[in-house]
Amino acid sequence: MNELVPDLNQITGQVTSHLEPFGGSVWLHKETVSDWLALSVAAAYAGFELSIASGFRSFERQLLIWNEKASGRRTLLDAKEQPVSPEEVADMSDKELLFAMLHWSAIPGCSRHHWGTDVDIYDKKCVASNESFELLAQDCSEGGRFAALHQWLDEQIANNAAKGFFRPYKGGQGFLHEPWHLSHRPVSKFFEAELSPQLLLHFYQQNNTVALSEVIVDNFEIIYEQYISVRG
User: Fold this and answer.
1) Domain residue spans in the chain?
2) How far apart are CA 140 and CA 167, in angstroms?
3) pLDDT value of residue 218
4) What's this model's pTM, rounded to 2 decimal places?
């Protein structure tokens, strides 16, 4: 069996056996590290300090983020990256809340960050020391502080020079454009191949720790089609 073929625990972020530490608190899939280093070196030659804001994210971490958004303890952003007021959240049905959360948050167990193949990136040169910031599309587009980095990345990806990295979330289907999110295709394709709707649906039928799990199960077919099944 190919060693890159993941099991359910790796797919859903419940183990770290496929990972290795990479600077500080970041973990990456073992087979992505060399290509990430090569891309970082190429970026440095182009004048950027390519850095990782988020690499591997465990099921537990994604669960915390998801459940805090569902309960109103964490700010929910709308499709235009604007905060949704607590009053608006309170007026939503469970189904409305679920799909509002799916704009920017993956359901725990469905995040590509579980795989260690995907990273959220930024140019460290454009960030003040110890600055706390949130990655937003407006910062990556024309006039934004990370725009130059993303223009360079656009060129690398278009010319097959991005060391296997691509943008899985280009907008469309149900998910929104996340230019900062890169995925390592040579390894992530093995996870995508194992990511069947039947496997995941059974996982949520057995797991009630995820907020809105009943609504997830009831709407899983459209969720899988529009928010999980990425066609990169």
Assistant:
1) 1-57+112-193, 61-110+195-225
2) 13
3) 96
4) 0.92
